[in-house]
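Table 4 source record.
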Amino acid sequence: MKNVLITGATGNLGKSVVEEFSDGAFTVNVAVRKPAENTGTESVWCADLSNGEEVTHMISEIMDAQNDLSAVIHLVGGYQAGGLAETNLEDVNAMIKLNFGTAFNIVHSLLPHYIKSGAGKFIFIGAKAAMDPGSASHNVAYAMSKQMLVPFAQVINENYRKNNISAHVLLPGTLDTALNRSLMPDADFSKWTSTSKLSKTMREIVEGIETSELIRF
């Protein structure tokens, strides 16, 4: 049975991902900031993922309990609107800390265990709109932080492919969630990315069916 770690499991996408992996074929571990959060799974680990020391401690605890991890699905992140004129460096640093820094901490802490075990997968959530300069001009800090995940994954793949370690970045469009529908009631929902489709793609990556390192939806 494969062990997976899901961060951001209590969000709209996170709940879909947890459901996808909770059919008995996987041991599902989730990372949350507060122990009281309802995650739909029993293996709950607490850490502030922006704190490298807390992440290292959490990963050590998981490895002691589970012996290995096949994959980490990193969903933690946030959004901030604002063009270049409305964005300051503090905004950029805050988005980088949340959207990239948390991913960096996970990789930095888990990579030695993956090397030792001889395999492992990292799955990150980017944003299709963030890769488009026109769209990114409306959310500069957010877009820059999400863009950083792509070269980061490329560095991991270039240096650790020989260790059977891979990194994958998914680039969805607007997620089709109840919250987004309420915020944008006049949008064409058929053009949005379903959380179910994203979740199934993540499972295919973990199972080795999908091997692409950059996947657009």
